[in-house]
Design brief:
This protein is α/β, with parallel strands linked by helices and 278 residues long. It contains seven helices and ten strands. It is globular and about 50 Å long.
Length: 278
């Protein structure tokens, strides 16, 4: 029994969708889908059906792409903001997928008991240089063509801003995590990195404001994280901070992974996983 993770499947791509169709079964294992599975509900349905057929348990968190307001099937206007988030949570639950709104499951497999905590926290533009004011972020990033498409496609309604939505999610999530059994370690899952020093994207150096919030920098210590799982950066890597393993588990766009290897090759083992190295 193992716990795997992968993110940024971007199933609008035919190559990525074909790779999902070819994914073998892992009937004894759990899998984390750490966001940016797809923009459209039809592709989310495809993903939830495929993964729940192949794995014992599926745990999913929203990425920013799930929240993009893009055309859907039929003529109905797509839901926006929190309404979109809630509709996708309902869709996931219809497949038995665990979401950030559900009770956190307890892992009792190899490596010992551990609470698996899917989070949805967004970002608040605090991952930016101190010399750049909040109202200058977009123009600063645009000078290097690094502005995130969220500025056009991610509606925070009914919140006044994305950072207000982020603050609300952080407050609510902290309360939930604080109620956990203090004797149990956790696996924290968030699409966006929890720490700014884990953002390594040299191809887009001014994209960082859309990558998380400094409010979560110490959550791996406060909430006893054995592993922290994230995606978003499309830079697969393992880092260690304070004895906690941080895993960036993106698949990415077709040019960013070797299609000859198949999707299974990019499933990252989270538990039991390797021993601490630093």
């Amino acid at each position: 029994m193992k716990l795997f993770a992968i993110s940024d499947l971007h199933l609008a791509s035919a190559a990525n969708s074909d790779a999902l169709a070819a994914l073998p079964e892992f009937p004894d294992d759990w899998v984390i889908l750490a966001g940016d599975v797809a923009e459209r509900f039809e592709h989310l349905r495809l993903a939830f059906a495929a993964f729940t057929q192949r794995f014992q348990k599926v745990i999913w968190v929203h990425g920013n792409h799930e929240l993009w307001c893009v055309p859907e099937e039929g003529n109905e206007p797509p839901p926006r903001g929190v309404a979109r988030y809630r509709a996708q949570v309902d869709l996931a639950r219809s497949f038995g997928v665990v979401t950030p709104e559900d009770p956190y499951p307890l892992w009792t497999g190899p490596g010992g008991n551990c609470v698996i905590a899917p989070l949805f926290l967004l970002y608040d533009y605090s991952f930016r240089p101190g010399s750049v004011a909040r109202d200058e972020v977009v123009s600063w990033a645009d000078a290097r063509h690094n502005v995130c498409a969220d500025e056009m496609l991610l509606d925070p309604a009914p919140h006044a801003s994305r950072e207000a939505w982020c603050a609300d999610r952080c407050r609510w999530t902290q309360e939930r995590l604080a109620e956990l059994d203090p004797t149990l370690p956790t696996v924290l899952i968030n699409h966006f990195p929890l720490r700014e020093d884990l953002v390594h994207i040299p191809r887009a150096p001014r994209f960082t404001p859309w990558c998380g919030t400094t409010a979560t920098a110490d959550w791996h210590r406060r909430f006893r994280a054995r592993v922290v799982v994230s995606g978003h950066l499309h830079v697969r890597r393992t880092d260690w901070r304070d004895g906690t393993r941080f895993e960036e588990v993106s698949l990415g766009h077709p040019r960013q992974w070797d299609q000859r290897l198949g999707m299974a090759h990019y499933l990252r083992e989270i538990l039991p996983g390797p021993a601490a190295s630093g």
